[in-house]
Every structure is written in C-alpha cells, then in structure tokens.
Amino acid sequence: MMKNKKWLKEILEIVAAFIAAWVFYQLLALAAHTSTPIVSVASLSMFHNQQFDDWWNQKLAYYESIGIDKGKFSKFAAKNGLNKGDILFIVSDEKLEVGDIIVYHPQSGCFSIDETIVHRIIKAEGSTLVTKGDNNPAQDKCAVQMSQIEGKAVLAVPLLGYPRLWLEEILVRLR
Predict the structure, then answer these.
(1) Strand, coil or helix: what is 40?
(2) DSSP string spanning 73-134?
(3) Is the distance from CB of 98 to CB of 124 less than 8 angstroms?
(4) What single DSSP character describes residue 142?
C-alpha cells in the first residue's frame, strides 16, 4: 500500500510540474506580447563556425554590397551567430531594425520546410523586411511582412533548446 502512495505522489508531482511550466509559458507570452515567447534554434542557418573576424572576412563582400560594414555588424545582436540548440526569448517589437534577429512564419513556398524561421533583418523597405541567415549564402527568397513576425530575439541561451528539438524529433518519428 505504501508503494502505491509513493507512485501516486510522484505522478502528481510530475503533473503539477507540467501544469506549472504551462502556466509560466502563458504568463511569459502575455508579458512578451507574443504567442511564442520561447523558441529553439533548429538549424545552422545562423551558425558562425569561426571567430567573428575570420567569419567576417569570408562574408564581408556580401554584407558590404548591401551597405553593412564590419563596424555596423559588430554592434548587431548575436554578432557571433546562433547555434542549433540555443533557446531564444522573444518579445513583440514594432520598432524592428536592420541587425535584429526575428522569428517569423514564412509565406508558403519560400522555404523547403514549413517551420518558424529565425533570421536576421538585413534590409528594411518600409513595412517589408529582407532577412538572411548569417550562414546562408544569400538573402531569403521572400520578403517578410510585419504580420508574419512573432517577435524579436532579446536573449539567447546556449544548449537549452535541445530538449525541445529532441521532443520534436521523437514526435515526427511517431507520425
């Protein structure tokens, strides 16, 4: 009888932990004014495989051709890029600028995958934004409208996004 109570207590504690996590996520979404306040980086499109100066020397021709020099880029958020498995904290922000890292839902057909994208703004043309993954050779195929944006990354924490990525992988395999 004592073992049954112990198992029941552990199950209830796990359920309580999941409920607390869900409530925390909802409160965070409310405070950040976005339905997606936490995002895991799922690809290497923002990855820099070298120190900033070496990476910049490889990419400078592209960025300088669009008016972004080394000094300007070095002031951008996450100037050293993002790694797969980083977790990002996202907030809604109406004042987006070149260099901001945004999370958005692409138009159908813009990417081979139908997932939320984490890329940097490289041009702002009115309410239309041009984005690019730092590790990608060219800008994204489709421009981004404000209505597609979930928010702007304000904090990146390494490795904490991996549990979510692993869970997604498991769920995909179960389908």
Answers:
(1) strand
(2) HTTSTTTT---TT-EEEEE--S---TT-EEEE-PPTTSSSS-S-EEEEEEEEETTEEEEE-T
(3) yes
(4) S
Asked if 103 and 39 count as a contact pair (C-beta separation under 8 A), the reply is yes
> Cα 145 vs. chain centroid, distance in angstroms?
17
Per residue of the chain (175 residues), what is the pLDDT tens digit?
566 778 888 999 999 999 999 999 999 999 999 999 999 999 999 999 999 999 999 999 999 999 999 999 999 999 999 999 999 999 998 889 999 999 999 988 888 777 899 999 999 988 899 999 999 999 999 999 999 999 999 999 998 888 888 888 888 888 7
Beta bridge partners of 128: 125, 145
Architecture of domain 35-174: Ribbon (2.10)
Bridge partners of 149, per DSSP, are: 104
pTM of this structure: 0.86
